[in-house]
Design brief:
Rossmann fold, binds nicotinamide-adenine-dinucleotide, alpha/beta, Gfo/Idh/MocA_oxidrdct_glycsds, 2 domains, Dihydrodipicolinate Reductase, domain 2
């Protein structure tokens, strides 16, 4: 009963009567590329959750999704009537897949509606936003997971374990890169007001590579922003290079770009090395180590695994792999990176 009460905390009446579910209902908010191409297909493979509802500002999308995924009319919302989701027992989790500047508003509204929340990365444009989101979820007694799919990938977990076990001694130097060529010329990723810029977007993968490979939080950063397409990247950076220093003395050189295809991680330890390439793809992340160990665990769907594991944490009231606090850790560094770009100096974190 306690588990059911947690699941249905949005509605005390339902909490008292509803049986414990074996599959949680997810409503996707924002039906753009990631929802359409990755999350909705993954939700056809999940075992602990299913696509129960949608929230969209485009009526034509509502019609198309309703037919394609057999979504009942009562589980379809727009941005205006979204708060009525509080009364809908089919929806246990709201998954926010909007441009980053909108994450805070919809996470807070979902929490107030008593729904657990999944939120895409980057968590939000500022530390203040992230803290408000964490606080709203805490006070409404709902869980908040960030869509860090890679942390659910056994290939990424394999290099995290090398640091934890100190298999090759201390980490000395890291090179971490994540970027792709974005041919779009008028997208939110190029607009400051919508939370664009490569640092929050692909940059968090380069940053996660360094944070997860050391298992430490950086203490200082120096960064440089640049663009080769100033006509497109007028408000935000196309490329960011940043160097991190960790408490143990480990250092990381990280690069991220909307103009360059790159995706790798190299870690040099006291007594060996590890390489991943790619390091943050949807599938096929793989690597090798100086002692001949190969990292190459096949995985059906990273997103399905992520959502199932996060749903299990909700059902069992256990810790999430990547809670809001983990999203905040990245944004703290991202804020310091922008401060460093503005001042041209190293910034303490
Ligand atoms: P997208 O531009 O394809 O979709 C954005 C959606 O938001 C669209 O449905 C759009 O209609 C809606 N929207 C509502 N108000 C908007 C506004 N004012 N401006 C622009 N769009 C508006 O973006 P996407 O690539 O699907 O990214 C959405 C979120 O998912 C972002 O946070 C992004 O970083 C994240 N994402 C994560 C991954 C991952 O691997 N975890 C991959 C891609 C995207």
């Amino acid at each position: 009963m306690a588990g059911a009460a947690t699941l249905f905390s949005g509605n005390p009446l339902l909490a008292a009567t509803a049986p414990k579910k074996d599959k949680l209902g997810i409503a996707l908010v924002g039906l753009g590329y990631y929802s359409t191409d990755l999350l909705a297909p993954a939700l056809q493979q999940t075992e602990k959750c299913y696509l129960a509802g949608i929230v969209t500002g485009t009526p034509a999308k509502a019609e198309a999704w309703k037919t394609k995924y057999n979504i009942p009319e009562k589980n379809i919302y727009n941005y205006q009537n979204f708060d009525q989701i509080a009364k809908n027992p089919d929806i246990d989790i709201v998954y926010v897949v909007l441009p980053p500047s909108m994450h805070r508003e919809f996470v807070v509204r979902a929490a107030k509606a008593g729904k657990h929340v999944f939120c895409e990365k980057p968590m939000a444009p500022s530390v203040a936003d992230c803290e408000a989101m964490i606080s709203a979820c805490k006070s409404n007694k709902v869980k908040l997971a960030i869509g860090y799919r890679c942390q659910h990938d056994p290939n990424i977990q394999a290099y995290m374990k090398v640091a934890k076990d100190q298999k090759f001694g201390k980490v000395k130097m890291i090179n971490s890169a994540a970027g792709y060529f974005d041919a779009r010329t008028d997208h939110w990723k190029q607009k400051k007001s919508l939370g664009g810029g490569v640092m929050g977007d692909m940059g968090v993968y380069a940053l996660q590579g360094a944070r997860l490979a050391t298992g430490e939080e950086p203490v200082s950063v120096i960064a440089q922003a640049s663009t080769t397409r100033p006509d497109i990247y007028k408000e935000v950076e196309e490329t960011m290079m940043f160097m991190l220093e960790f408490p143990s003395g480990a250092r990381a050189a990280c690069q991220t770009s909307f103009g360059i295809n790159m995706n790798y991680l190299q870690v040099n330890y006291e007594k060996g090395w590890l390489k991943m390439e790619p390091q943050s793809a949807y599938n096929g992340n793989k690597g090798s180590m100086s002692d001949g160990t190969i990292i190459n665990f096949p995985i059906k769907s990273q997103q399905a695994k992520q959502m199932d594991e996060d749903c299990l944490a909700i059902m069992n009231n256990t810790d999430l792999i990547a809670p809001g606090e983990e999203g905040l850790r990245d944004i703290r560094v991202v804020e310091a990176i922008y401060k460093s770009v503005a001042s041209g100096k190293a910034v303490k974190i």
